[in-house]
From TrEMBL:
It comes from the Eukaryota. GO terms for biological process: ubiquitin-dependent protein catabolic process. It comes from Rhizophora mucronata (Asiatic mangrove). GO terms for cellular component: COP9 signalosome; proteasome complex. Keywords: Cytoplasm, Proteasome. This is 26S proteasome regulatory subunit S3. Residues 22-204 form the COP9 signalosome complex subunit 3 N-terminal helical repeats domain. Pfam families: COP9_hel_rpt (PF22788).
Length: 217
């Protein structure tokens, strides 16, 4: 993608991020430009400065996904980690939910960097991501285990408990439930909530042994 084309897309994002109909039209433009964005990924990073992650969330997400789609030079990693953390915290849920798979991919890449660098830096953004991705408090997203893993690594057990108090009735993937119960059980042990830990770890055993034995095959 030529830079002037990327810049024109920035202008479209700025002008089409207001009403639902505008955002729908913008989404069509972004999907058509996706391959071109990925081909010129690292040149897009400076253009993020012209977008507001709260107002232009959908366009920002497409740019950020493209920026992190391939190998990122070491001198850009820290900058992209900070940019991604700010985006996850600030973005509008109603916009990013139009492209949930992209949002999940961006969040998981952010989580990988947080694990490598400083897990505690990923805790607040991942909690925000979970809440924005949930269709309801009863919905277990694929980001729940990532959030709990960061809480465990950072020893932020009390923060982890905030989502373990939710009653879960909707699960996207059995593997997510398995990891949610496993990491959640460890967090409850860390907080000496042994009864809750026992319940969660019993679920781990049941899922592994009886309901979904193929999870790790």
């Amino acid at each position: 993608m030529a830079m002037n084309t990327a810049e024109s897309l920035v202008t479209q994002i700025q002008g089409l991020s207001g009403s639902a109909s505008d955002i729908s039209a913008l989404h069509d433009c972004l999907k058509q430009a996706e391959d071109s964005l990925r081909n010129d990924a690292l040149r897009l990073v400076p253009l993020l400065n012209h977008l507001d992650p709260a107002l232009h969330s959908l366009g920002y997400l497409y740019f950020l996904d493209a920026c992190t789609s391939g190998a990122v030079p070491e001198d850009l990693v820290e900058e992209l980690v900070l940019i991604t953390a700010r985006f996850i915290t600030s973005c509008a849920a109603e916009q990013i939910c139009l492209a949930p798979t992209k949002f999940i991919v961006v969040c998981k890449k952010f989580k990988e960097q947080a694990v490598l660098r400083a897990p505690i830096r990923g805790v607040a953004p991942l909690l925000a991501a979970v809440r924005k991705l949930q269709s309801s408090p009863e919905h277990l997203t694929t980001l729940h285990p990532d959030f709990l893993q960061l809480c465990l690594l950072a020893k932020c057990y009390k923060v982890g408990l905030t989502i373990l108090k939710d009653d879960i009735f909707e699960v996207d993937q059995p593997r997510d439930l398995f990891l949610y119960c496993y990491y959640g059980g460890m967090i409850c042990i860390g907080q000496k909530h042994f009864q809750k830990a026992l319940e969660l770890l019993h679920n781990v055993h049941h899922l592994f042994s009886h309901q979904y034995p193929q999870l790790w095959q």
